[in-house]
Amino acid sequence: MAYCTQTDLIAHFGQKRLEQLLIDTEGDTLASADPTAYLTEAIAVVDDEIDGALAPHYNVPLSTVPAEVRGLAVLGVFTHLALRRMETYTELDRTLDERYQKALAELRSGKRRIADLTISQGLPVAVGSLDPHSSRPYTEGSTDPDTINSGLTDPLDRY
Predict the structure, then answer these.
(1) Is residue 19 part of a domain?
(2) Which domain holds residue 25?
(3) Using DSSP, how many helices (H) and how many strands (E) does the chain show?
């Protein structure tokens, strides 16, 4: 299932802008053989990119498409189509592409989460719990002076 459709693209960017992006690079007409061939290819490429970014944390492909993923797919398809037409590539197109690439990187790294999805992969293995003031794991009753407030002793006892 595609993460966005032609209808989504028209709703976000308008029919005229979509047609401008689908114009054959050889001339000023829509691609004669199949004007949606570029669109179909761009949607498939973006779906693969999004799946690649989500795969470390979620089961892909997604069976239902959350609004955030749909919006990211629309942005990705738009930037892929805009990159085809470098002679009309604008600063806005560049900004949208940077935003798209940043979102993919954040999804890949786990910095960005999709609210409607359940994380199913790539979770760290718990070894005790984490101190709220440090990223170092500790176990209850630890006497290691490097751990901060294991919850069993007063942190000021060391002073």
Answers:
(1) yes
(2) 6-109
(3) 5, 2
The two beta strands, 129-130 and 137-138, are antiparallel
Q: For the chain, what is the domain count?
A: 2
18 and 85 share a domain?
A: yes
End-to-end CA separation in angstroms for the chain? 61
pLDDT of residue 154: 57
Q: Please compute, for residue 38, the number of CA atoms within 13 A of its CA located in the half-sphere on the CB side.
A: 22
* 97/131 same-domain check: no
Closest of 151, 154, 157, 4 to residue 79, by C-alpha: 4
Give pTM, 2 decimals. Answer: 0.70
Q: What is the dihedral of CA 142, 146, 151, 155, to 10 degrees?
A: 130
Residues in the chain: 159
Q: Is 118 inside a domain boundary?
A: no
Q: Report how far apart, in Å, the C-alpha atoms of 69 and of each of 25, 62, 65, 130, 156 are.
A: 29, 10, 6, 31, 47
Domain contains 117: no
Tell me the per-residue pLDDT of 19-78, one tens digit each, with 9 for 90 and over: 888 876 665 555 555 667 889 999 999 999 999 999 998 989 998 999 999 999 999 999
